Amino acid sequence: QVQLVESGGGLVQAGGSLRLSCVASGRTFSRDGMSWFRQAPGKEREFVASISRSGGTTTYADSVKGRFTISRDNAKNTMYLQMNSLKPEDTAVYYCNGLGLWGKGTLVTVSS
After folding, report:
1. How many CB atoms lie within 10 A of CB 103?
2. Other Cβ atoms within 10 Å of 44 Cβ, number
3. Residue 16: helix, strand or coil by DSSP?
4. DSSP characters for the chain?
5. Mean pLDDT throughout 61-82?
6. pLDDT for the residue numbered 25
């Protein structure tokens, strides 16, 4: 069964770090660009970052630029989001997107 599975969310204090992972199963992971989105309580889902098939091109939302780093390991069918200097406003469910699919999300909570 084709799916994307996120992990790595949790509770962290402001200024802390987390690394999210997204594992793809059942498809050729390297054939598609991948993205991270997030949805905060009461807000619409928003773009966070994207990465090209090879990993050579990355794009970030202004709100996370300089703090978050997206990467991928095609040999492991895995995409990552390294999140540093976290802020309370980064609190959201983070979703992996690509291969025409969405994951179920992983919750990140940043306390002040």
Report:
1. 21
2. 7
3. coil
4. --EEEEE--EEEETT--EEEEEEEESS-GGGS-EEEEEE-TTS--EEEEEE-SSS--EEE-TTTTTTEEEEEEGGGTEEEEEE-S--GGG-EEEEEEETTEE---EEEEEE-
5. 97
6. 86
| Structural contact between residues 48 and 57, judged by C-beta atoms closer than 8 angstroms | no
**Residue 84 amino acid letter:** N
* Higher-scoring residue by pLDDT: 99, 20: 20
pLDDT band at 27 (very low <50, low <70, confident <90, very high): low
Residue 52 pLDDT > 80:
yes
Residue 70 tokens, joined:
């997206």
Angle at the Cα of 30 (from 78 to 90), degrees rounded to 5?
45
Token pair for residue 3? Answer: 């799916």
| Most distant pair of Cα atoms in the chain: their distance | 40
Supply 96's token pair.
């992996």
Whole-angstrom distance, CA of residue 15 vs CA of residue 103: 26
Backbone angles phi, psi at 21, to 5 degrees: -125, 150
